[in-house]
Specification:
Catalyzes the methylthiolation of N6-(dimethylallyl)adenosine (i(6)A), leading to the formation of 2-methylthio-N6-(dimethylallyl)adenosine (ms(2)i(6)A) at position 37 in tRNAs that read codons beginning with uridine. Helices cover about 35% and strands about 20% of the residues. It is an alpha/beta fold and about 450 residues long. The chain binds S-adenosyl-L-homocysteine, iron/sulfur cluster (SF4) and FE3-S4 cluster.
């Protein structure tokens, strides 16, 4: 069915998985003949791809949705879709809350958008949240960037961290085959992409659900094997992966990252808490000591590797002393970047039912103290780049200064330098770092004279 006169808009909340899903869904809508619109108020089909990791993420969705539900009373032809994690969590209840909705679809159904939307255009109100086997998508995603691309390698999560909604909303683990992943990367290489980020909520679980063992009796489809399998895809110069889980992180993986030149020396390994009792209550399956050992190993093999992580403060029952163990870990390890969050009780998770919840005030205070330390440590980490020559993959122009382009170092530091985006987009440029801030750098490109500096953003 073609939809030549309909325009669609997608707003994406949440993590990289959701961004990747949105790009695939946009690809499906393009293929159906709808036109893309950046402005929801000009669109006939609005899709909110939602996140429910914390309460504030979920509330944001309702406020956006409320506005468009109102608009639907003026424009009855407006089609309203909620996809993603709030859709999966709330299911039918969303229709009761927002009866103007036409389609509620969980993350596992992203690739089925055409089929579901056809049912909507036929006059049905549709809810698709039953667990399914995720079918390989054959549509070309509409990617936000022409330089860097997400590639899903494993969907879902089989962990049961006591605070987390992800297993409830993303379902059980489903790995894509190494062949499908490589084929997608080859296509990206042919289309001119330079960097790929392999995605999984717990990427170390990759391949557990695929068959195959080696002669030594080892599972043959691990993340490490995957990296060896895809590392030489033509055109792809940089490979990243996220998110690593300390419980399953292996030395073999570190060695592969060191050995394979295209795999970036950057690890994203959330630790969540620096206290063993809190880690136990979270159900994370490792200790603070094990986390230190992982970081030591990485730094033994790759002293300059960037390390980032996620942490939660104010988990139920967390004492001041236990929180200080998190501060101490952050102080000792010195992360290049740390995503921090105050604990938010989530429906359907064990910890939400516990009675030892902390007050918002305590959580806010701890978050502030942790963030303060994080920026001090990140600034210290940035210092090491000063005067160095770094390879920067140029992604775009600096939105705040169009005479500059921006990109990332191998270690994932955002870097700005004077240059022409037309000439440099997608290129890896050697840049001498002249200024270092906590989370970004400024530098000068080597041999810029040959490149010119007009801005064409
Ligand atoms: N799979 C990844 C992270 C997934 S969610 C992992 O295992 O680490 C992204 C981050 O959100 C988590 O790392 C955690 O720090 C945070 N998060 C998850 N649930 C949360 C909650 N209920 N309250 C606050 N932060 C939460
Ligand atoms: Fe959530 Fe834990 Fe799975 Fe990460 S590993 S997505 S925190 S349940
Ligand atoms: Fe949010 Fe779902 Fe990702 S809850 S963080 S969009 S997996």
């Amino acid at each position: 069915m073609t939809q030549l006169h309909r325009r669609y808009h997608i707003t994406t909340f949440g993590c990289q998985m959701n961004k990747a899903d949105s790009e695939r869904m946009a690809g499906i809508l393009d293929k159906m003949g709808l036109e893309h619109s950046d402005d929801p108020n000009c669109a006939d089909v609005i899709l909110y791809n939602t996140c429910t990791i914390r309460d504030n993420a979920e509330q944001k969705v309702y406020s956006y949705l409320g506005r468009q539900a109102k608009r639907k009373h003026e424009y009855p032809n407006l089609t309203l879709i909620v996809s993603g994690c709030v859709a999966q969590q709330e299911g039918e209840q969303l229709l009761r809350r927002v009866p103007e909705l036409d389609l509620v679809m969980g993350p596992q159904h992203a690739n089925r958008l055409e089929d579901l939307l056809t049912q909507v255009f036929d006059g049905n109100q549709v809810v698709a949240t039953e667990p399914i086997h995720i079918i390989e998508d054959i549509t070309k995603p509409r990617r936000d960037s022409a330089v860097t691309a997400w590639v899903n390698v494993i969907y879902g999560c089989n962990e049961r961290c006591t605070y987390c909604v992800v297993p409830n909303v993303r379902g059980t683990e489903q790995s894509r085959t190494p062949e499908a992943i490589r084929a997608e990367m080859e296509m990206l290489g042919e289309q001119g992409y330079t960097e790929v980020t392999l995605l999984g909520q717990n990427i170390d679980a990759y391949g557990r659900d695929l068959p195959g063992v080696t002669a030594e009796g080892r599972h043959k489809n691990t993340l490490t094997d995957l990296l060896y399998f895809v590392h030489d895809v033509p055109g792809i110069e940089r490979i990243r992966f996220a998110t690593s889980h300390p419980r399953y992180f292996t030395e073999r993986l570190i060695c592969a990252c060191k050995e394979l030149p295209k795999v970036c020396e950057h690890f994203h390994i959330p630790f969540q808490s620096g206290d063993n009792d809190v880690l136990k209550a979270m159900g994370r399956g490792y200790t603070q000591q094990k986390y230190y050992r992982i970081i030591d190993k990485i730094r033994t093999y790759m002293p300059d590797a960037s390390i980032s992580a996620d942490a939660i403060v104010g988990f139920p029952g967390e004492t001041e002393e236990q929180f200080e163990n998190t501060l101490q870990l952050v102080d000792e390890i010195g992360f290049d970047q740390l995503n921090t969050a105050a604990y938010s009780p989530r429906p359907g998770t064990p910890a939400a039912l516990w009675e030892n919840q902390l007050s918002e005030e305590v959580k806010r205070d701890r978050l502030q103290r942790l963030n303060h330390l994080v920026s001090i440590k990140a600034a210290e980490r940035s210092e090491r780049y000063l005067g160095r020559i770094e390879e920067v993959l140029v992604e775009d122009c600096n939105p705040k200064d169009p005479s500059q382009v921006m990109g990332r170092t191998q270690g994932n530091r955002l870097t700005f330098f004077a240059g022409d985006i037309e000439a440099l987009k997608g290129k890896i440029v050697k840049v001498k770092i002249t200024e270092a801030r906590a989370f970004s750098l400024t530098g000068e490109a080597l041999a810029m004279a040959a490149i010119g500096s007009s801005s064409k953003c």
